[in-house]
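Record format v2
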Amino acid sequence: MKAPALLAIGLLAWASFALAVDSTPPLSNPVLQQRYLALTHELRCMQCQNEALADSPVGLASDLRRDVRELLQAGQSDDQIRDHMVARYGEFILLRPRMNWRNAWLWSAPAVFMLIGVIIAVRVLRDRRRRVDIDELDADVEPSER
Amino acid sequence: MNRFVLPLAAFALLLIVLIVGLRHAPEKGVIVSPLLGKSAPQFTLPDLLDEQNQLRTDALRGHWSLVNVWGTWCEECRVEHATLLQIKQQGRVPIIGIDWKDDDAQARSWLSEMGNPYDHVGADREGRVAIDWGVYGAPESFLVNPAGTVVYKHVGALSPQIWAQEFLPHLL
């Protein structure tokens, strides 16, 4: 009973900390605020590297959040803002990588594996059917002829 | 016998992929700048040491330059400072400093106490110019050619060895 209670208190304390990272007031336009939250969750904090901009307390992350807000208010699209960040920090800043010619093989891997699987399955099934056919042929043969 | 060949081949292939991945892992720590081979970003900054003056991208035109991003809050910058002074003394390239999100007074006393290796220092108080240069951790140093193209970038403190091995070959 004690451990779950402690865990709950710990989680609550952590949650309040997580909320405190981005202390700027929300954008007055709720649509822009929604896009702001989405973008800052899919852009990487370059200093801490495994955190999103939205979750990072370091100075560079708050500067980059400021830039995202300003670009949103200047009327830029999500893609324009992503391009703006990629032009400065490279594709690495996107936590959700985009497809390009260098990683196309990786994106196509699931389809390739699926294809390999289908080919194997077709072969196995065809093999099995042929074997069944042979068994049936064998069964047709009169016992006396064996 | 035959039925082991395919799984073994697959395993060998996986092993090769993992070994190649591991051997290239050390390079993964440093992010390759998309700025390399491109024009240096445009900037206008107040001159840290001369309030009347501004530091502009033109300061990089017509000669090689070393652009160094630093701050008094950055411990590695203290480590690197002696190397910058040596580079200044060699006189091969002017050093342009970008003082990143710093206190102007502290930055000025840092330079008067430890010596000033910079030909010009811009005060990037809001950190906007550093972002345009794709800076993610001071110190960072960029080599810019006479046409204003970024040729090389080093992340972390410079040392005489790094300067000799990674920067000087570009200048020859």
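The CA atoms of residues 73 and 102 of chain B lie 7 Å apart.
Chain B has one domain: 44-171.
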